[in-house]
Amino acid sequence: MRLQHNGICETCQQPYNNRKKKRFCSWKCRQDVTALHKLNEMMGNIPADGSCMEWPLGKRGGYGRVTVLGVRRTVTHVAFEMACGPIPDGMFVCHKCDNPPCFRPDHLFLGTKLDNARDREAKGRNRPPKGESNPNAKLTECQVREIRRLREAGRTLKSLAAQFGVTFCVIHVIVKRRGWAHVV
Question: Given its phi and psi angles, is residue 90 left (phi above 0), alpha (psi -120 to 50 degrees) or beta?
Answer without folding.
Answer: left
